[in-house]
Amino acid sequence: MNEFDLAVIGLGYVGMPLAKEAAGAGLRVVGLDVDAGKVDALNAGQSYIDDLTDADLDQMLKNGFTATFDEAVLARADTIVICVPTPLDDDHRPDLSAVEGATKAVSRHLTAGTLVVLESTTWPGTTDEVARPLLESSGLVAGRDFHLAFSPERIDPGNPKFGLRNTPKVVGGYTPACLDRAAAFYARFVEQVVRVSGTREAEMAKLLENTYRHVNIALVNEMAIFCDELGVDLWESIEAAATKPFGFQKFLPGPGVGGHCIPVDPSYLSYTVRKLGYPFRFVELAQEINERMPAYVVARVQRLLNRHRKAVNGSRVLLLGVTYKPDIADERETPAVPLARALRELGAELAFVDPYVKDWRVDGSNVPREDDLAEAVAAADITVLLQQHSVFDLATIEERAGLVLDTRGVLAEGERVERL
Ligand code: SAJ
């Protein structure tokens, strides 16, 4: 009998909700991370995860959860789940270094009968072609001596309705026996397990989910640009289209696509397709359109100021909401950074308001933070609404602001207020 039912590698926004649900279901859970700071914070009951309160963590610690950076614990766990980041490198190519590092650690301590699951979002074939050889360098054989599966994470930071337990969990096994073992594991604390025939189908399901969003966001972004020129209120047309009770899902234009999923995951798919010798055109086009949105916002700022006989150069430009989406503190890939960079190059005097961001640096230099929304919008030559955090009082913005460019379509348009 192993000391642990589950070892989670990677104690971030995916690993910790998994550890929490498993511990809550009575599993004996240990967390492994290479970041000693995270390990110490967790063992001290201090959560750094948006969706995990200190009270949640306290309950986990009471349920026997511990965090460690000693990889030897992996030899004492029935199941090992890898939840490490899969970012893109500077050339926009998949960076599997964290996955490889974690998998090598597992291989160094792999024991017969263990179930190993990869949850990190990655290109179809990674589990079989990258993880399995590394694990088998232990001398154990996948499907015979240990079980191997892939199950995509579907954690949506800040989502009040869906968490790990009530979000269906897709699982693909290297063999049918691997699938049975992995499905039984997740069934202990997830309401619905969705079995697919192999690890590639599970890897692909995740990439389809997020590529679908990426492409449809790009669609409405591109439409926003030409609808402005056509004099069509796209925001109204989208709301009207959304009344269709079937066959349509609403997406809204914005200042660009941020986060650790949507701008990243589709590139894992286009990278794989390119290996076949041709491009995945939808993704590459969507990437180009979404990445162009910050520059388009700058052009609209210039036009609105110009209509009021002002130049960007020397104007006070206030950015409201610099995270990547409303009501969370995450700034990864936020479109506010390229936007701020371009406005600075045009000579704008920048400031920002964001209750989730205490200090904000763009290219190493600090952007002044305003605490009082009403005063800040009144003092600015133009306000750009980027993320409509719930705490922002929209009426105050409409009443007190000089000029406003609303990139989220939540303000009433008027002489001084334009929507993207
Ligand atoms: N965005 C738009 N227009 C839209 C929707 C999003 O511009 O209509 C922008 C957002 O402002 C943000 C970016 O796209 O910058 C991504 O937004 P998102 O709503 O997709 O949020 P994420 O990145 O947190 O995506 C996560 C994903 N969850 C997982 O990968 C497990 C995604 O699959 C979820 O569908 C999404 O949350 C969600 O539904 O909230």
Question: Overview of this structure, please?
Answer:
This protein has 420 residues and is α/β, with parallel strands linked by helices. The protein folds into three domains: 4-197, NAD(P)-binding Rossmann-like Domain (Rossmann fold, 3-Layer(aba) Sandwich), CATH 3.40.50.720; 198-291, 3-Layer(aba) Sandwich (Rossmann fold); 293-420, Rossmann fold (3-Layer(aba) Sandwich), CATH 3.40.50. Helices cover 39% and strands 15% of the residues. It contains 13 helices and 15 strands. The chain has an eight-stranded mixed sheet with strand order 3-2-1-4-5-6-7-8, with helices on both faces. It has a five-stranded parallel sheet with strand order 10-9-13-14-15, sandwiched between helices. The chain has a two-stranded antiparallel ribbon with strand order 11-12. The termini are far apart. The relative contact order is 0.08. The mean pLDDT is 96.
